[in-house]
TrEMBL record:
Protein name (Swiss-Prot/TrEMBL): Queuine tRNA-ribosyltransferase
Lineage: Bacteria, Bacillati, Bacillota, Clostridia, Lachnospirales
Pathway annotation: tRNA modification; tRNA-queuosine biosynthesis
Cofactor: how and how many bound: Binds 1 zinc ion per subunit.
Matching Pfam families: TGT
Gene that encodes the chain: tgt
Length: 377
């Protein structure tokens, strides 16, 4: 159940009660694709860097090790030793972006594994069954994620099918949650709004799926190559058509600036691979924008990545040392950068929540965005 604690303009401060504990929103979910955050980050680390929700990918776990293996091991929480909330995506996005030859039919999608090419079928029921086996806290509906530049006619047909699929997901989830051997019988289901950059298709779709009384609603199919202006315009139009008393999740977004803007438009769940991916390449976030630690100017820099940062990297190590590790291709260098970046995002969300609580979100957003544009001394 979601509690809307406070609104500041359109920014929402909420709390989602789950069987794995409460999620304070706005929240940034830390992406652990194959039940691990890339960069040798363990669940013990996640406790330390303020992670509230871990996100795992259904498609990846279905292909390897297999959701039956995870189920036999007691579900994802036991398997990866993480007792807080986990969100699993539906597998749809990976099916459409990663998998080899695929065929979309009314019943679902036929495609080939990107690992060994073997044929797989996934439809709404299969996606729900896999996510039920994984036993995540929140399951995502199986949808088609069409290219944002797909033509209008295709987009409308695709969105209509996604609505039919959503109804099948809901029925299947209810059935699975009632079975005696289901690990998490309180698994929640979020629906996904699609429609590319066509506002009218998106708004009609949002109105329709809102009637289904799901546990939360996501805006999908953004941050896939359209401009930031298009993304903000779509959010301006669509979010008011999603239920305010449910979590609103903007999938796959984004930069700290994107998050600040989306929160201002009523979004309260986020996920993105940027902090871990950038960290693995030595790109670290600070209040004064991103730094590339490979840069020669950090060779003798004895400051932490960011003064005052409470992350395990900044508590102990200098920029010069981390730069050396990165250049020597020591795994520790990568790990420290990923820990810092995830802490930075998690901490940003904490500041966002405090600013909404204090009724000063607009000022906070403007100050923080200005900071990102102002290089450090
Ligand atoms: Zn740090």
């Amino acid at each position: 159940m979601y509690e809307l604690l406070k609104k500041d303009g359109r920014a929402k401060r909420g709390r989602l009660h789950t069987v794995h504990g409460d999620i304070e929103t706005p929240v940034f979910m830390n992406v652990g694709t194959a039940a691990a955050i890339k960069g040798a980050v363990s669940t013990a680390d996640l406790q330390q860097i303020g992670t509230q929700v871990e996100l795992s990918n259904t498609y990846h776990l279905h292909v390897r090790p297999g959701d039956q293996v995870v189920k036999k091991m007691g579900g994802l929480h036991k398997f990866m030793v993480w007792d807080k909330p986990i969100l699993t995506d539906s597998g749809g996005f990976q099916v459409f972006s990663l998998a080899g030859l695929r065929k979309i039919k009314e019943e679902g999608v036929y495609f080939q594994s990107h690992i060994d090419g073997h044929k797989i079928f996934m439809g709404p029921e299969e996606s729900m069954q896999i996510q039920s086996n994984l036993a995540s806290t929140i399951a995502m509906a199986f949808d088609e994620c069409p290219s944002s530049v797909a033509d209008r006619d295709y987009m409308q047909k695709s969105v209509d099918r996604t609505t039919r699929w959503l109804k099948r997901c809901k029925a299947e989830m209810e059935r699975l949650n009632s079975l005696p051997d289901t690990i998490n019988k309180h698994q929640m289901l979020f629906g996904i709004n699609q429609g590319g950059i066509y506002e009218d298709i998106r708004v009609a779709h949002a109105d329709e799926i809102s009637k289904l009384d799901l546990d939360g609603y996501a805006v999908g199919g953004l941050a896939v190559g359209e401009s930031h202006e298009d993304m903000y315009r779509i959010l301006d139009e669509v979010v008011p058509h999603l239920p305010e008393n449910k979590p609103t999740y903007l999938m796959g977004v984004g930069t700290p600036a994107n998050i600040l803007e989306a929160v201002d438009r009523g979004v309260d769940f986020f996920d993105c691979v940027y902090p871990s991916r950038n960290g693995r390449h030595g790109h670290v976030y600070t209040k004064h924008g991103k730094l590339n630690l490979f840069n020669a100017r950090f060779e003798l820099d004895d400051r932490p990545i960011e003064e005052g940062c409470g992350c395990p990297a900044c508590q102990m190590y200098s920029r010069a040392y981390i730069r050396h590790l990165l250049k020597a291709k020591e795994m520790l260098g990568m790990r420290l950068c990923v820990l810092h970046n995830l802490y930075f995002y998690n901490h940003l969300m904490e500041e966002i929540r405090d600013a909404i609580d204090a009724g000063r979100y607009k000022e906070y957003k403007e100050e923080t965005l200005r900071g990102f544009e102002t290089p450090e001394d």
